[in-house]
Specification:
This protein is an alpha+beta fold and 139 residues long. The chain has helices spanning 36-53, 79-97, 122-130; strands spanning 9-11, 14-16, 18-26, 56-62, 66-73, 108-116, 134-137. The strands form 2 sheets. The chain has a 5-stranded antiparallel beta sheet with strand order 6-3-5-4-7, with helices on both faces. Strands 1-2 form a two-stranded antiparallel sheet.
Length: 139
């Protein structure tokens, strides 16, 4: 198996390569994300939230009831800030855009799964996410 080298990023006093695999799930595993408008809004909110928190979204895949993100962060990044922005904004905007979902008090489950990817090569995680459904990529 051939592995691609991970590009190291640099700041004034550090060199780093920090990757996370984030999974967020809809409340009660409802299939809210099967709606194209919901997926579009989630992607737009993710890009905006990533820009504000110095996160790079490497890969996104969405199923009907959950979404996977491969994220690259800086040493100073608070990944939980990104998650709060992502879930809060997307919940509000999706329920506003899709009135049928407005009756639900919560869009996302309050929990999330955040895994550092140090235990597996990035290519393996990328391939896993690619197999998870509808996929968007931005490098």
């Amino acid at each position: 198996m051939k592995f691609r080298r991970i590009a190291l990023r640099k700041k004034s006093h550090c060199v780093y390569a920090i990757f996370f695999h984030l999974v967020i799930v809809t409340k009660y595993r409802h299939g809210f994300l099967k709606e194209p408008a919901a997926r579009r809004i989630l992607w737009e909110v993710a890009k905006k939230s990533a820009e504000e928190t110095e996160i790079i979204i490497k890969e996104v895949a969405m199923e009907k009831d959950h979404a996977h993100f491969l994220l690259e962060a800086t040493p100073q990044t608070k990944v939980t800030t990104f998650i709060k922005l992502l879930k809060g904004r997307s919940s509000f905007l999706i329920r506003k855009a899709l009135p049928a979902l407005a009756k639900h008090r919560a869009f996302w489950s309050p929990s999330f799964c955040l895994l550092s990817t140090g235990g597996a090569p990035i290519d393996i995680i990328r391939k896993y996410i690619e197999k998870q459904g509808i996929r968007d990529t931005e490098d």
